[in-house]
Amino acid sequence: MDPKNKTPINEPTWEIVGFDSATHKMKSAPMTLDFKGNKLTYSLDKSENHDSSDLTYQDSKLLEASQDGKPRGIFRDMRIEENGVISLAFSNGVVEPVARIGILAFTNDQGLRKIGGNVYEMQEGTINGENRPLSGNPILGWDEEGKLKFGKIRHKYLETSNVNAGNALTNLILMQRGYSMNAKAFGAGDDMIKEAISLKK
């Protein structure tokens, strides 16, 4: 068949093939095929020993290709979705989820112990004669479908609770003092150069 127009390259060749019911063997005269101007003879009943042919009528070519994968990708960016899923983005367009940020809630958040900055930990206390978490047991923030029941994750946002106003003001004062000292040092250097020039004159 011609792969372009789906038509036969050669005229079809017809032969009658019979079977011997007693010997269960094939009965057929040798079949002659016209192939590129050459005559190829085959014996279907194997009465004549002919090797098979690996000739092709025309050079093979790729007519159609499909791909079910992606080429190699290089890591480009990391993003955090509102539901806490951490995904990696690659140069080949693939975005692969790799982890998830744990989100918990407590019935009594005042029962948590602050250990520094905005970091807290659970602490136990005696309730009705039993040692229990003062904050209550943690409640997972996702439902069975993996959706957040409360709260959202904001990527590249800064919460006011993450900023210590005292430390921020102290750093601002230090930077201002450093700027003033540098400015005075440059001014003193200019005065010394001017004095040296005047002495030379």
From TrEMBL:
UniProt superkingdom: Bacteria
Annotated Gene Ontology cellular component terms: bacterial-type flagellum basal body
The keyword Transport is annotated on this UniProt entry: no
Entry's localization field: Bacterial flagellum basal body
An annotated GO BP: bacterial-type flagellum-dependent swarming motility
Alphabetically ordered keywords of this record: Bacterial flagellum, Cell projection, Cilium, Flagellum
Domain Flagellar basal-body/hook protein C-terminal span(s) in chain numbering: 156-199
Main location group: other
Stored InterPro entries: Flagellar_FlgE/F/G, Flg_bb/hook_C_dom, FlgE/F/G-like
Entry's family note: Belongs to the flagella basal body rod proteins family.
PANTHER family per UniProt: FLAGELLAR BASAL-BODY ROD PROTEIN FLGG, FLAGELLAR PROTEIN
Protein name: Flagellar hook-basal body s family protein
Organism encoding this protein: Helicobacter pylori SouthAfrica50
